Amino acid sequence: MTERETTVRDGRLFDDVVDAWRRFGRGIVFDDPATDTPLLRAEGLRFATRYMAAGALLSMELADPHYPEFARWADTTCSWGIDNPDVIYTLAAVRGDAVYRIFGERGTSHYLDVQVHSPHFCEAPDYRIDSNIDSRSLAVAGDGSFELFVGGEPREGNWLPLDADAQSLCVRQLFCDWETERPANLMIERVGAHYPPDSPLTETDVRARGERLVRWFDKAGVFWDLMCKRSLETMPNTLPWTALAESAWGGFQSQAYGMGNFRCAPDEAVVLEFTPPTAHYWSFGTGNYYWETVNWFSRQSSLNCHQARLDDDGVFRAVIAHRDPGVPNWLDTGGHPHGTLNGRLLLADAFPEPMLRVVAFDSLRDHLPASTPRVDPAERSEQLRRRRTAAHLRNRH
Q: Is the pLDDT score of 1 beyond 90?
């Protein structure tokens, strides 16, 4: 029996995982005096379990490059890493010396992107995007079907190369109209695989997966937290765009990310003004102290270019507030007086920076165009009911 096998059998690997999760939770949540509020401690414990759930899925389950499968690593039940409410995220394991076939129906998402990581997404910040293909160049048949080969020799049609140290493949689907756009139906298989698999799960396999899960806490978790703190520590009520070269390493290529924060007292509102450039997509949303998007399926904590209302002068004006301001473009704080604020701008011809200003909640209308519609409580409730229904129906596929 090897040393790696022994640590599985005698429980040392289990202890390593538990200890790493404890370090993560204590360091990011419970040993931080800034989180010592009832809301942040409650959200913090939930966040620790969500991050564990995402890591267990990514490290332990989606870890077989011989028989890969797609699964979601962020959705309505598992928010982390300032996930985009407009995106369905899925991941599968790959290896650099194999060939894979992705096939199925394209769906009708506004944008779709497939990217290959080396080594593995869980190794953040030490992974890179080797290659990608998006819906602008993906060839799709008239009936919506397509196939994409990944790895091996170059071939005609849809094809992506695999680097020797490639270990994961991510599909992101972006939706603007949640009620009408539908997800792709995708499968992935290793070319030449035969069934059933040659051998069952081994202790050596589990050891490698468990070590990756430990790094998910000790390395990736610390990195994501530093990114979150960077947003929280910028000048209050600002949202600067990252340079494309900086943001492209880990997300959509050609997308700028706005990373800032809001500060809003209970009797205040923050007015965000943004003149959209020509772009394929843009959005804004609120997040909490742990870089979780505020409950985006039951609250209006995000708005994209399809959902937003522009004023007559072409400006997007949103109101960040704790309670409903009775305007279309409300961004809910989720009860946080200080939280993260994010923006996304995809394939844009310019990057105008949003302007934010704090006003008294009771005088909010004095700071908005007179033509700004009023949304009464019944209308808001129905809007949120439809938003929640659309989100769950979309994510059920």
A: no
The band of 4, judged by pLDDT with boundaries at 50, 70 and 90, is low
pLDDT at 149 exceeding the cut of 70: yes
Note the pLDDT tens digit of each residue in 83-134.
Answer: 999 999 999 999 999 999 999 999 999 999 999 999 999 999 999 999 999 9
Cα-to-chain-centroid distance, residue 137 = 23
Q: 45 — alpha (psi -120 to 50), left (phi > 0) or beta?
A: alpha
Q: Give Dmax (Cα) for the chain.
A: 76
Q: 42 — phi, psi (to 5°)?
A: -65, -45
DSSP 8-state code for residue 241: B
Q: Which uninterrupted H or E stretch holds 96?
A: none
CA 381 from centroid of its chain's CA atoms = 26
Which residues touch 54 (CB under 8 Å, ≥6 apart)? 73, 74, 78, 80
Closest of 251, 253, 254, 308 to residue 276, by C-alpha: 308
Quick one: pLDDT band at residue 248, thresholds 50, 70, 90? confident
The Cα 290–Cα 31 span in angstroms is 14
Cis omega (within 30 of 0) on the bond before 154?
Answer: no
| Rg from Cα positions in the chain | 22
Strand partners, 283: 304, 344
| Model pTM score | 0.96
In angstroms, the Cα distances linking 29 to 34, 223, 333 are: 9, 15, 20
Element (H, E) at 203: helix 203-215
Per-residue pLDDT, 64: 97
Closest CA to 282 of 373, 346, 204: 346
Contact 323, 277 (CB under 8 A): no
Residue matched to tokens 């039951």: 298
